[in-house]
């Protein structure tokens, strides 16, 4: 009968599944579970095997030259640690369904040190500096345009007795703070801070 024929659909590759790497710092809370699941050489060989080719527990036992009971034990622990998961199902010649296990991440990286923290901080700082810089340029442009289009009040004034002084930095700052440029700068800086925090948070969860 056709229903008793072995069915072995191919499991999607790591790239096709769009998996991301798992980065585990040794002092993270998740490190204990991951290290415990990978403490056995058999578990590490099993994880490497499903990266090479997702397969059910019975074929993993044959590939590792060990018992199905041993593979079942390590499979359960690796699933609990979220290092592997069922990715498809095969049907044996006897009509029995078998879960096919594959990796949950494109790679598993254990590391020690502050490299990741420094990377997050530097990335967030670069985003903040770039955002503030763009906002500053934009606010000055808005202030300049607003000043150029603002109606000028004309009134009679006594003739100057000497050369008229050029507008100084203090006058420009005063006009900037009283005009729309300051509002644009304030809103832009706030948005830059929020975006930089979002970048750091996203990288922390990666």
UniProtKB/TrEMBL annotation:
Tell me if Membrane is a UniProt keyword of this record: yes
Would you say which domain of life the source belongs to?
Archaea
Q: Which organism is it from?
A: Haloferax lucentense (strain DSM 14919 / JCM 9276 / NCIMB 13854 / Aa 2.2)
Listed A to Z, the keywords are: Membrane, Transmembrane, Transmembrane helix
Which SUPFAM superfamilies does the entry mention? Winged helix' DNA-binding domain (SSF46785)
Ranges that cross the membrane = 175-201
Q: What is this protein called?
A: ArsR family regulatory protein
InterPro entries (UniProt xref): ArsR-like_HTH, WH-like_DNA-bd_sf, WH_DNA-bd_sf
From which lineage does this chain's organism come?
Archaea, Methanobacteriati, Methanobacteriota, Stenosarchaea group, Halobacteria
């Amino acid at each position: 009968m056709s229903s008793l024929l072995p069915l072995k659909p191919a499991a999607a590759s790591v790239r096709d599944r769009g998996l991301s790497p798992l980065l585990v710092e040794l002092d993270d809370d998740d490190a204990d579970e991951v290290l415990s699941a990978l403490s056995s050489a058999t578990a590490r060989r099993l994880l490497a095997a499903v990266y090479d080719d997702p397969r059910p527990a019975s074929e993993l036992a044959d590939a590792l030259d060990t018992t199905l009971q041993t593979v079942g034990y390590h499979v359960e622990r690796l699933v609990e640690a979220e290092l592997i998961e069922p990715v498809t199902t095969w049907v044996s010649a006897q009509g029995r369904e078998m879960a096919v296990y594959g990796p949950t991440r494109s790679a598993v990286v254990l590391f020690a040190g502050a490299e990741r923290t420094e990377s997050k901080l530097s990335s967030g700082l670069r985003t903040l500096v770039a955002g503030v810089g763009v906002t500053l340029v934009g606010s000055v442009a808005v202030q300049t345009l607003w000043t150029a289009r603002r109606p000028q009040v004309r009134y009679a004034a006594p003739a100057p007795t000497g050369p008229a002084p050029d507008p100084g930095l203090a006058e420009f700052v005063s006009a900037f703070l009283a005009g729309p440029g300051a509002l644009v700068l304030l809103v832009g800086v706030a948005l830059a801070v929020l975006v930089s925090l979002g970048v750091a948070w996203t990288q922390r969860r990666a």
